[in-house]
Amino acid sequence: MTKPSLLLLGAGGHAKACIDVIEQEDRFSIGGLIGLSIEVGSEVLGYPVLGTDDDVIKLLKEFRFALISIGQIKTSIHRIRLFNLLEQTGCTLPTVISPNAYVSKHANVGYGTIIMHGAVVNAGVTIKRNCIINSQSLVEHDSMVGDHCHIATGVTINSGVEIDNGTFIGSNTSVRQCVRIGENCVIGMGQRVLSDCEPGSCLPKI
Predict the structure, then answer these.
(1) 193 phi and psi, to 5 degrees?
(2) Which end of the chain is more exposed for a tag (fewer CB within 10 A), N or C?
(3) CATH code of the domain covering residue 166
(4) What is the pTM of this model?
(5) Interval 44-65 mean pLDDT
């Protein structure tokens, strides 16, 4: 049976990690990527960069499925813009889960989200749309991660935590149980989040 072809939007370092997960999951064939103008005509891990953002609508006539493969640190704006574009075209954004991750059958994961190698998503967790749950991260029971969030490598989200839309949690950060983190926060690497964070918070403060 022929696997459906998938278009990736983004051709940088995060795209390489996404490609590896997609190859291991083995549900899709990767038809190509969208990148910067200087990247068009090149390859990423053997897959062609077919065009730029200006070509997305045209290319989606050939692709039923697409996934956003650009990273997110300081802002979720670029991933949200591409997500909205894909939704407007009627394109299907799959949920991609590494076979080397553990996602409880009692968890809910939204479309357009990718769960990377070694991640653990426990029972009662809700992860919404267009998120990155990165390698070796843990989202414990009864927690919620909103739309367009990036939970970076090695993060520990303890039980009952709520993370609102567009927030970034940096590598090796630990979040205490039942903490509420507002939308569009940027939590840096290696932080200990012990209390609620107001929307737009930046830790450490800069």
Answers:
(1) -95, 105
(2) N
(3) 2.160.10.10
(4) 0.95
(5) 93
- 84-106: average pLDDT: 96
Within this chain, do residues 122 and 143 fall inside the same structural domain, yes or no? yes
In a domain, 202, yes or no: no
Amino acid at 64: R
**Domain membership flag for residue 74:** yes
Shared domain check, 183 and 159: yes
Q: What is the pLDDT of residue 205?
A: 67
**83 & 103 share domain:** no
Check: CB of residue 191 under 8 Å from CB of residue 173.
yes
End position of a domain, from candidates 89, 109, 135: 89
164 inside domain? yes
